[in-house]
């Protein structure tokens, strides 16, 4: 019996974030196209070699991307909106990056123009990849969409690996999932109707792979974990029967992940493919289905190691659970794999020299997960007298974690037990609070604000680095941050912003900053994962019970407020986002961990109110991404997620205005939950969708106040006043003017001041211009 190990995808970023720095040098005109491409080749070679060295039998190719694999697929098949000036054939890098980041119309590093439009183009819309914190670029389709194979990059990657001595299994995003991830401007047109036009492009790409000697290809269809329509299932049947007929020499491993295939099981098992990958971490019950129903000749790829979290697997438990399936199906038709691509976890635990050794013994990053797969496969080798002996280190780590005193805090558990429904309720309904807050704040119509952060310049980062190294004293570091904060406050006053922020110069990351001040969290030095493009994050690790030993933001909020008579927002990251953007312990329900975080934040909120902070923003950009993929599972999640937000916010009085922020999410399917959060003001991303996302709020007659983002902070473009005025006017088609706030899409941390200053000046000018225009009659509310 021979059981193989396989990997579905490897992190792209490099052990030392080489891809990030290469991209940013190229975008800044400091590196050539050849230098960027060279970095890509080097990283791919290192990734293939590392996987081979860890004993992985089946190594993927074409899992690397310079920005995003969904964008890569759009470019592969020629799904490029006309605005980007593409006229067919291979797509150059700068058109690719214009789709990803927007373009200014200025000459690029290699001397070409980014787009046909001299004023530049906005980027494609960006949203969350299923229920992860990875962002993908949303493909745009037309009713008469044409597709073509622009350049067979999967083939190119396969041949590149082969030249280095690696026989790989190319990875492609499946055509049905690709179409379902896209959007169209025609509300009555379903992108899945384009499947017959798209299919020949895929057939040609696969045929060229087969001609080059590829024997297997991995086609990812994570849509199989969704609630599919009959039309979707017919499209899947058409696609894979066409592949089987047109490219019969090529064996297909159909990969699905992020959940159970559930009622799509019959579809998945009857498609004419050679292999099927299933996620047994998110849906372990699928083992029983496979034992009973999997065709005898089907190769089964079992996603047994968690590709989305960093805890060591229970290898002994897996060994025992897998035995019935392997006995029934035969080990020669079994592959052991991660649950999904390892894109979502850091690369190498061995880089973490400063991590607590006991905690480190409980963890596994991408390379260590490959070691776990190899170890698990070895336990199934014939002739081992006691196979579970190979798991001795894994078992020891599990026992130590279970009994560690670092994990459990009886005070936290006791506080949770005393909670009642009243703890999640504001004292008065929104209509009452609104009147009280309007009187206290005296804001004009279309009040302006920003989402929180201001540019983290190289000087800010250098000061933080010098302080961390001990080369800048605490006193001098604080003095520097105070100067930056004061300058930001004075500048906002000067340009006329109504509700100010302090700029967050003291903060490294919106989750990490708070996590570092909470108990139960730990941190890595090199645990980077990709969020989008060159934006990487180091998710904190929640390993124990969470509480707040001391105030976290009070000093900076109070200092900023002391500088001005205008309201300054207190800025917090919400409990659901603190949960979602961390690697969460797997020994407690996520709802319990979230309530612990909510109570810690509640303490901070009430301290801010006591210090005179009138506006407090509790950001929840991750609320939507935690939504279960299946409709039947969503109510339970939304109930506890909303409760946790309210628990964090409900300790204040009516006169304190609670804001929240959400970005790059589809809101239609969670509108009732958003309303139930009962935030006084919500700010959302709407500029990339040209206010389309606002339709969810207007269609449901959202009662509270809304700040629809009027410009895209993920692009270097500086939009003009009239462009912003136009977007706000579109917002007034579904909202009354007294509901509308004016703000950017998101925080400005990643932008430069040279872009931020003119953009915010234009934003304030747009709001002032609208105040002078005729408006629909206002509801009765106090406004200055």
Question: What's this, in brief?
Answer:
The chain is an alpha/beta fold. Helix content is 40%, strand content 12%. The longest helix is centred in the middle third of the chain and has 22 residues, at 474-495.
Structure notes:
It is a single chain. This protein folds into two domains: 4-403, TIM Barrel (Alpha-Beta Barrel); 432-455 and 491-522 and 551-771, TIM Barrel (Alpha-Beta Barrel). The longest helix is centred in the middle third of the chain and has 22 residues, at 474-495. Helix 1 runs antiparallel to helix 2 and helix 22 (590-610) runs parallel beside helix 23. The chain has 784 residues and is an alpha/beta fold. 40% of the residues lie in helices and 12% in strands.
What is the total tally of β strands?
22
Specify the CATH class of the largest domain: Alpha Beta
Q: What's the N-to-C terminus distance?
A: 78 Å
The amount of helix comes to 25-40%
Largest sheet: 8 strands, parallel
Tally of domains: 2
CATH architecture of the largest domain: Alpha-Beta Barrel
Query: What is the multimeric organization of the chains shown?
Result: single chain
How large is the count of helical segments? 27
The CATH topology of the largest domain corresponds to TIM Barrel
List unreliable stretches of 5+ residues.
107-118, 776-784
């Amino acid at each position: 019996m021979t059981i193989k190990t396989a990997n579905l995808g490897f992190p792209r970023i490099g052990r030392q974030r080489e891809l990030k720095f290469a991209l940013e040098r190229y975008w800044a005109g400091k590196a050539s196209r050849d230098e960027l491409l060279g970095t890509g080749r080097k990283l791919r070679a290192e990734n293939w070699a590392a996987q081979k060295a860890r004993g992985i039998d089946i190594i993927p190719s074409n899992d690397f991307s310079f920005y995003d694999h969904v964008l890569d697929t759009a470019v592969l098949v020629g799904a490029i909106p006309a605005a980007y000036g593409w006229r067919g054939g291979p797509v150059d890098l700068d058109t690719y990056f214009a789709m990803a980041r927007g373009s200014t119309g200025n000459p690029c590093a290699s001397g070409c123009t980014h787009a046909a439009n001299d004023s530049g183009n906005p980027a494609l819309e960006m949203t969350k990849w299923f229920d992860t914190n990875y962002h993908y670029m949303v493909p745009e389709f037309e009713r008469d969409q044409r597709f073509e194979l622009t350049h067979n990059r999967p083939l190119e990657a396969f041949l590149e690996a082969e030249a280095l001595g690696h026989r790989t299994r190319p990875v492609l995003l499946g055509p049905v999932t690709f179409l379902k991830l896209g959007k169209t401007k025609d509300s009555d047109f379903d992108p899945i109707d384009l499947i017959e036009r798209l299919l020949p492009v895929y057939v040609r790409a696969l045929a060229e792979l087969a001609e080059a000697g590829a024997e297997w290809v991995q086609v990812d269809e994570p849509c199989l974990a969704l609630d599919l329509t009959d039309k979707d299932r017919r499209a899947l049947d058409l696609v894979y029967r066409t592949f089987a007929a047109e490219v019969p020499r090529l064996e297909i491993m159909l990969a699905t992940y992020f959940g159970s295939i559930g009622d799509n099981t019959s579809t998945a098992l009857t498609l004419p493919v050679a292999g099927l990958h299933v996620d047994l971490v998110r849906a372990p019950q699928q083992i029983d289905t496979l034992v009973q129903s999997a065709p005898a000749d089907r190769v089964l790829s079992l996603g047994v190691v968690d590709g989305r979290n960093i805890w060591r697997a229970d290898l002994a438990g897996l060994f025992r659970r897998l035995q019935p399936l392997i006995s029934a199906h035969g080990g020669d038709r079994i592959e052991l794999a991660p649950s999904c691509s390892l894109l979502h976890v850091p690369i190498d635990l061995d880089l973490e020299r400063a991590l607590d050794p006991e905690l480190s013994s409980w963890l596994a990053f991408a390379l260590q997960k490959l070691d776990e797969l190899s170890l698990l496969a070895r336990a199934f080798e014939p002739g081992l007298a006691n196979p579970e002996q190979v798991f001795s280190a894994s078992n020891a780590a599990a026992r130590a974690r279970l009994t560690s005193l670092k994990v459990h805090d009886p005070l936290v558990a006791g506080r949770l037990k005393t909670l009642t429904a009243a703890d999640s309720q504001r004292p008065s309904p929104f209509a009452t609070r609104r009147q009280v807050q309007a009187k206290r704040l005296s804001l004009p119509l279309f009040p302006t604000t920003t989402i929180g952060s201001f540019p983290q310049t190289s000087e800010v980062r250098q000061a933080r680095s010098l302080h961390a190294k001990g080369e800048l004293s605490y006193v001098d570091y604080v003095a520097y941050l105070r100067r930056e904060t004061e300058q930001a406050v004075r500048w906002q006053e000067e340009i006329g912003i109504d509700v100010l922020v302090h700029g967050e110069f003291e903060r490294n990351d919106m989750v990490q900053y708070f996590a570092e001040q909470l108990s139960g969290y730990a941190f890595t030095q090199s645990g980077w994962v990709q969020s989008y493009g060159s934006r990487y994050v180091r998710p904190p690790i929640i390993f124990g019970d969470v509480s707040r030993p001391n105030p976290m933001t009070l000093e900076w909020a109070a200092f900023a407020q002391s500088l001005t008579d205008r309201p300054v927002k207190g800025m917090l990251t919400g409990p659901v986002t603190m949960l979602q953007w961390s690697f969460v312990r797997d020994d407690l329900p996520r709802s319990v961990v979230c309530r612990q975080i909510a109570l810690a934040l509640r303490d901070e909120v009430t301290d801010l109110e006591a210090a005179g902070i009138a506006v407090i923003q509790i950001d929840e950009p991750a609320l939507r991404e935690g939504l279960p993929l299946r409709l039947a599972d969503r109510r339970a999640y939304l109930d506890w997620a909303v409760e946790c937000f309210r628990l964090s916010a409900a300790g204040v009085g009516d006169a304190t205005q609670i804001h929240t922020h959400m970005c790059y999410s589809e809101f239609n399917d969670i509108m009732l939950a958003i309303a139930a959060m009962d935030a006084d003001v919500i700010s959302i991303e709407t500029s990339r969708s040209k206010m389309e996302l606002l339709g969810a709020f207007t269609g449901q007659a959202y009662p509270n106040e809304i700040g629809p983002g009027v410009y895209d902070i993920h692009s270097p473009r500086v939009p003009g006043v009239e462009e912003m005025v136009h977007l706000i006017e579109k917002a007034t088609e579904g909202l009354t003017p007294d509901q509308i706030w004016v703000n950017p899409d998101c925080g400005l941390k990643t932008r430069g001041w040279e872009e931020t200053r003119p953009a915010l000046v234009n934003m304030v000018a747009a709001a002032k211009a609208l105040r002078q225009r005729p408006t629909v009659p206002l509801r009765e509310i106090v406004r200055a």
